[in-house]
Amino acid sequence: MGGHSGTVYSLRIVAAILIVTLAWDALDPWAGPSPFFVLASYFLLGFVCAAAFPGQVWFGIAVAVAAAIGFEVLQFLVPLRDVRGIELIGKWLSASGGVILELILVLARELRQRKR
Fold this sequence. Notes:
Transmembrane segments: 7-24, 30-50, 57-77, 89-108
Helix content: over 70%
Number of helices: 4
Largest sheet: none
Radius of gyration: 16 Å
Organism: Devosia neptuniae
Protein name: VanZ-like domain-containing protein
Keywords: Membrane, Transmembrane, Transmembrane helix
Number of strands: 0
């Protein structure tokens, strides 16, 4: 396995672990992590998902956004949990922020390579 494909594979594993962890948090009626931790986790998810699918970045974006929105909506089914619009927007914006950071870094790398 080459360096680039090994990195992509590792990022996909990290993305899967993040998704499972965030799903566990969303569906656990007793979970109560700090809002900062939750938003940072979704930011990281967006960043990792965008990086994990370099040739199909839109797929990575769709996964991150679907997780951010889907896990909040699924809380409707969990006793003692509720869906809050502000949390949904916060998670979506955090995931989108991570995606945007990864896209900026990709653009910067491409511009740097063109200058060589």
